[in-house]
């Protein structure tokens, strides 16, 4: 069906975004490390990118692309997309949460690879997770994120 819609109007970005969302869902439901999952993931990345080429302000496609990049182990690239979403919708808790998650992933990856994490990432993530906790003070996931950031902060030499 998507192919027919795209053939009828190849420049309409929503077709690509919807196709990407379908492929993303299929990828998440496929067996881990299977060729099926890799194929659906590759298609979803392509679809979301095509959607954003046609309409860079499509925040839904940008969020989905960011989530897919995180799942693919690319938190740096995902961060770029979530920064865009966050700057357009600063009160969107999901965008804020995903941005914090990207920052944590980047910092933890740096620690695992014995690379120095820039203090600016630590400061930025601390501020943003505090904002999440102001939105939802009792949220356990946000408290855990804060604890992870604090643990990362202990790695900085005085």
Number of domains: 2
Number of helices: 8
Average pLDDT confidence is: 88
Q: Estimate the strand proportion.
A: under 5%
What CATH calls the topology of the largest domain is Serine Threonine Protein Phosphatase 5, Tetratricopeptide repeat
Class derived from helix and strand content = mainly alpha
Give helix % range: over 70%
Layout of strands and helices, then pairs:
Elements: H1 2-8, H2 13-29, H3 35-54, H4 59-71, H5 75-88, H6 93-112, H7 119-135, H8 140-153
What's the short version?
The protein has eight helices and no strands.
Question: How would you describe the overall organization of this protein?
Answer:
This protein has eight helices and no strands. With 158 residues, the protein is mostly helical. The protein starts with a helix and ends in a 5-residue tail after the last helix. The mean pLDDT is 88.
Keyword list:
Serine Threonine Protein Phosphatase 5, Tetratricopeptide repeat; 0% strand; 8 helices; 2 domains; mainly alpha; globular; 158 residues
């Amino acid at each position: 069906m998507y192919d027919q819609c795209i053939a009828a109007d190849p420049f309409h970005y929503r077709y690509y975004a919807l196709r990407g969302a379908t492929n993303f869902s299929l990828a998440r439901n496929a067996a881990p490390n299977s060729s099926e999952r890799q194929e659906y993931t590759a298609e979803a990345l392509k679809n979301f990118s095509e959607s954003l080429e046609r309409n860079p302000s499509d925040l839904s496609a940008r969020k989905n692309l960011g989530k897919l990049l995180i799942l693919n182990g690319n938190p740096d690239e995902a961060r770029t997309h979530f920064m865009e979403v966050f700057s357009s919708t600063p009160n969107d808790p999901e965008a804020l949460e995903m941005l914090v998650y990207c920052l944590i992933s980047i910092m933890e990856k740096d620690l695992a690879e014995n690379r120095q994490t820039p203090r600016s990432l630590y400061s930025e993530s601390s501020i943003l997770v505090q904002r999440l906790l102001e939105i939802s003070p009792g949220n356990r996931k946000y408290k855990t994120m804060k604890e992870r950031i604090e643990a990362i902060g202990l790695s900085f030499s005085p």
